[in-house]
Amino acid sequence: MAFVLTLCSVGVAQTFTAVDLGTLGGLNSEAVAVNNGQVVGNSYISNGSVHAFRWTQAGGMVDLGTLGGSYSNAYAVNDSQVVGSADTSSGATHAFSWTAAAGMIDLGTLAGFTSSSAGQVSNGQVVGGAYTNNAGTILSHAFSWTTAGGMIDLGTLGGGNSTAYAVSNGQVVGAADTNGGVNHAFSWTAESGMIDLGTLSGFPHSEAFGVDNGEVVGQAYTGSGQWRAFSWTAVGGMVDLGTLGGGSSEAVAVSNGQVIGTADTSNGRGHAFSWTPAGGMRWRS
Q1: DSSP 131-196
Q2: What pLDDT, in 10s, does the model give residues 15-72?
Q3: What global pTM score does this model have?
Q4: What's the CA gap between 256 and 156, in Å, rounded?
Q5: SS3 for 18?
Q6: Which of 137, 131, 136 is nearest to 162 (CA)?
């Protein structure tokens, strides 16, 4: 069953309380995201299907339903909006947005069969990937969805495919194929369109997973063929954040200049890290 750890005191001694959120009638449930006391996740129901749920202390666990099919999955919550993917009555899987006022809304596709949100929403803007159907060729393109504009195809960097992983204040980031057939991290805004963020040492392949206040983070290959966490800004470009003494690292999120991710240590183990411009990469105090 899903549970939440609540921090009760901060100091040398820390006390945690586990709260069982229950299920939707089935045996198991899992929590995947939390925001302002709301927990979202997925739970088995009595017939064996899996449905997305939203839990609050006041209302308990609420079944968010589906788009007419049997399954749904929640990926993220922001304020009162839950996003994820759900089966339709035709058997397709579509990205959805759910609010208490509107219920579950089908975000559609880019003329293809399937779409899925990326697990992040910012000010009502949902991003992810959706299949297209251009001249009979099925490709997957990054999308941005808003209530006002619907689902917009963000395009690629000259190649066939792209996907969006994160959004913050209108800036969407992800990875897209170039016309040379390699994958590069991108940043997209309505004003600038899709911008190629490049790579480290010119070696092909990079991906962006997080964005905040114009700073983009992700991973990129180095000239030696190892993954390295990076931070990108319009002023400084792409910067290699290094490792914890090992070969590889990956940045997954950023907030107010603090980057988090996973990096190899000198003994070959992977440790969570925190990186700031002032302190560099650290895995413990």
Answers
A1: EE-BTTB--EEEEEEETTTEEEE---BEEEEEEEEEEETTEEEEEEEETTS-EEEEEEETTTEEEE
A2: 567 889 999 999 999 999 999 999 999 999 999 999 999 999 999 999 999 999 999 9
A3: 0.90
A4: 28
A5: strand
A6: 131
